[in-house]
Amino acid sequence: MVDNHTTMTMGQYIWQDREIRFDAAPRHLENRQGEFIIDSINSVEDTKGNNGERGSLVVTNLRILWIAHKNNRTNLSIGLKTVVNINIRKAKSKLRGPTQALYIMTQDVGNRFEFIFTSLVKNSPRLFTTVQSVERAYKTSSLYRDLKLRGSIIRDHQLILLPLEQVYNKIPDAWNLSSDQGNLGQFFITNVRLVWHANLAQNFNVSVPYMQMKHVRIRGSKFGKALVIETQPKCGGYILGFRLHPPERLETILKEIISLHKIFSVNPIFGVDFHEEESTPSLDQLKVVRVDDDVEIVDGDTNDAFAAYYADGFNGGENKEISFDDDIGLACEKLLDGWSMSSLWNVAGD
Amino acid sequence: MSLFKAKDYWSTSLSSTSLTEYDTSSITIAELTILDPPQPQIITGSLEGLLRIHVPNSEASAKDLLLEEDLGEPILSLKTGKFIPTGSNSAASIGLAILHPKKLVVYEVISESNTLSLRKCYEHGLGVRGKHFTAANMCKGGFGRDELREGICVQSLDSRVQIFDLDVESFSRRLVGGLLPGPIVYHEKLDAFITFNSLLDVECYSFSALASAKDTNEEDEEEDKLANLKSPNHPSNTSVSSSKKVQASWSTNLGEQIIDIQIGSLEGSSKDIVCLGTKCIFALNDLGSIKWSKFLGYETISFTLFSNPKSNNTTSPAQNIIVSGADGNLNIYRSQKLIWKAKLADPNSFSIATFVSDFECSKGMITTLSDDCRLSVSYLGTESEKEGQVVKEGKEINYDDVDEEHRKLLGIIRASQSDTRIEPREKIIMRTQVPKRLDEPDKVHVLDGGFEHLAEKATRMPCSDGSEGILKITTKLFLTYTGTGTLKDVTVTLNLPDAVMTKDTCIKIDKLKGGSATPMIIDITFYANASVLPTVDTVGVTAMFFTASGEPRTGTTELKLPLFFFCRLQPATKEPTFKFKLDTNKQPIMLAGLFDDMMDVLMDEERAGVDASGTANYVLTFRYWVADPNGVPFNATVLLSKTSGRYRVQSHSMPSLWFISQCLCSRLTAYFENSEGANSGLELNYNEPHLPLQDFYNAIDQHFWWRLKLAENLSAQNDCAQQFRTIQKRLLLRFKDRNAVPLQQLDVLLAETYHKLLELSKEVENAQWSLKSSANELSCTTLLILLFIKLRYDMSEEECEVLSSNLTPNVSDCEACGWEEMVDSGMMSLLRTVLAKKNQDQTASAQGTTLQMPQDTAKLKKHISIVVDRIHKGARLLADE
Questions:
Q1: Could you give the CA distance from residue B704 to residue B771 in angstroms, rounded to a whole number?
Q2: Is residue A10 part of a domain?
Q3: Which of B61, B116, B345 sits opposite A203 (nearest CB)?
Q4: B245-284 pLDDT, tens digit each
Q5: Is B380 close to A341, i.e. CB distance below 8 A?
Q6: A173, part of any domain
Q7: Which residues form the PTHB1 platform domain (chain B) (predicted)?
Q8: Which of A210, A57, A207 is nearest to A134 (CA)?
Q9: Is the residue at A119 inside a domain?
Q10: In terms of domains, do B571 and B556 share one?
Q11: A58 with A65: CB under 8 angstroms?
Q12: ipTM, 2 decimals?
């Protein structure tokens, strides 16, 4: 199906901001392309899983890393996308006693994890302020990283640009092949994403960042040759087909998209922008190069380093069937035979 | 704290910028458009103006968002209902009313090619005749019991309501008790608005009454008042406003701030007005009387009523209540009874708006909008929360560290359990260093200034310049403290034998550093007493300190003074008055080698005198610093048989034999131990037919004689003193008498008695000195006899100890108890116990009589003889085990 003379590119999946990794191999702690360290705070205790141990908390534009001072194999990599919320509450630390701590509630596939970090430097709000503002900045810049359908991104047939975004090309007469008859619209090609919207309904649109594209190629369809963009399976695995009106333009547009994809899927703009309010020495001066040992011990046993962090208890990664309870009038987890919500409540309530 | 949790079926974050905020009325759930399969949609509008429509799916994806539109103005409230005029060319039956601060807009939602879009139906600017009006909230309903369409009532921030009937503005009225807007709701059955005012009253305004009332317009009133002021005679025109005033049908004071009001049927039949307070929940009937109220005990945020399908009344099903608390719990009530409680899946947030609706996955799903802008659809979890589930197996355990800690803990446990105390590690270790030579003698005057008594007794020795000096030796004492920190106030005490003197027997050290610091060095200078024969050559050194916890602790060591400090070599003399032979089973050791330290200190010319033609190997004469009362110095000579290992020690006095004999014995033992090891098999034998007991008795007699003499002298002195005092008394009497009789030579008698008293005192002093000297000699003799007994009967160290403790060489004479009675008592106790004859009771103890100075020494001598005799016959001093 793939035409011989057309090129095809493969995008790599970026896990750094989307996953939580426990005791990852040291090479996984290195910054990927486009990732940069925003702040690095020493003497932070992982109060939940490694109470009593000092480590450094590194905040990048994609994740929060905690690495034990003693052994960099004891570490945490918390993707910012998994973060549900961040709180400052009281916690009990072995190294400092009762103190203010940073609570990070996260949700990975099916499981919730809670992390508690305590700064061992007295009266240092840096831990709280940096993490909170970076998380905020990440949460409010999801258009740089996530596929968006039917978003409010077009106003008066013009793309609402993101702060770091530049439009490279605008292509009218692009047909979307999602429905039988097709929809006429236009493309915006920028340094962050590819946007298509229907001419008739600006709410009918799609915004695909390059980092979410898996394949870009030309494929045959019932409308003839079409530009096909396949997205990463983790963000839905959508296949988007477009037909460009003068078919000769297809090749040039494809080339343009492919070259931009090559650049920006490898070295993406993640959209987390920051500036420090106090003038501190430049990052290069502060950066401590992590020395990684090149030995990786493959652990045969299941790694349950994360067990300590479960917020709800381990539920096997699967949710139980949902059933409707007549008595209470609400949906609930399916009960074992012989139990009703009221009997369960009366047992628990007494 | 609830046992159960609400589980998320679907959730998404609604925050798009850092300013995103939602209010309790920013969300509604309705079926705006027909989807495939049909599902209700969640409509949210943020205060920044972003309208979104979501449909939950089992897996969150980009497809869940159906519409996102920036309306450009804050969205205060959202309502869906029959707002679209019939006859208009719209396909949708349900309109979406959006309340902005200054306007109310009704949209219809159009679905075209999988995409939703908004179309504005109509818009109302708020405020009457351009007057100020800022919206606070709104409610909807079929006002006037209209079943086909629904009207909207908007309440302003100052409690004015404006009512719209579709695209037509109906009227605007000011509510009476209003100062701040409370929640407002339309009660269908009463056709009235239920609201809450600043007086904490729930009020009911009938729609028809509102519609017919004349609005009290302040500005009109003010105009009227102005007109009245201008023409006071003119009757005030108040007829209109008084006739139809806005008035509440009823009002009920609840005494608590009300957050939300909803109309529902909690017990089936009738409609209730349910009001949620900040801490309580109230149920009111149609007439405004309170049916019940319930104190909830937590801070409430929002609530909702939902149908309970199991209720028996099918026509109007009873409803349950979900109250969301600030603690993040969802509390579900059936009427007043709590039937379930679930914590939100995200424990750090609470729900600001709660809905129950039927989605594709199940009926009765709970939709919550949390304070941190998270929209979730959840259901009730039935598994209790597992607390404290911490699995640490994945952690690497450092077993060495664990072992170490375990050992340490065991040590602490053992230490606190055992009764015996463990010696603290902190102690003072002392070491001594003795020079190989005597110091250069000090000038006598060096000891002036408090130490003249030393100079008087100390041994003299010529200085290098020929003048008279004082013999001395300076030894070094090293002190090390093994603990950490610094010790304060360490006291070093010296326990000196009689023959040794020093300036100060007690040395105070202010600070002693611990740890690995260099040891503290103290120089101690010793002087030899020129009037006392040496008995032992060791000085006891004791250091005392207090630990940090205040316990006194000591460290001890012994300082062995060299032989050349007590005597020196002399050209050989022959004074065989007292002598004894000492046999060894080894080859003879040259004396010059055995006493090489003594040879080393000699000057060359002295050496030549001592070692004339190599005789020093076979004969050595030692001269003590001490001389007898006749001025003859005490000597002791050691002779070695040229053929066998036989030594002879001789002297003109018996006491002077002891120190050299003791030196000889210990040096021989040490020599063979060094050369042949500990089990050298050296045997020393006292090779004389008899023990010199007679000489010992003589020494005893002499000592005893001096004791008697001293007692006699003391008695004479006492008599004389008595006499002296009597004469004094008589003289004083005469001195006081006015008509005194002649002195009759009493003054001469006084002077004579005084002289005699002085003489007697001198004699007492002499006797004391002689007693001391004879005690010293007796001490030496006793030691010698003990040595002889030991050598002759081959006694073990333990036996020697027993004997020497009874026949003590420690001759100390005091008024209470003298040496003779002490030794006699010791001898008696030996004879009655270990040395008793077989048929006698060996356990009989010494008589508990007080010790008294005996008349003579015959008994003592006899007892000593019997003891020696029994030992001679083979009796042993240690009881059989």
A1: 8
A2: no
A3: B116
A4: 888 899 999 999 999 999 988 876 678 899 999 999 999 9
A5: yes
A6: yes
A7: 562-675
A8: A57
A9: yes
A10: no
A11: yes
A12: 0.79
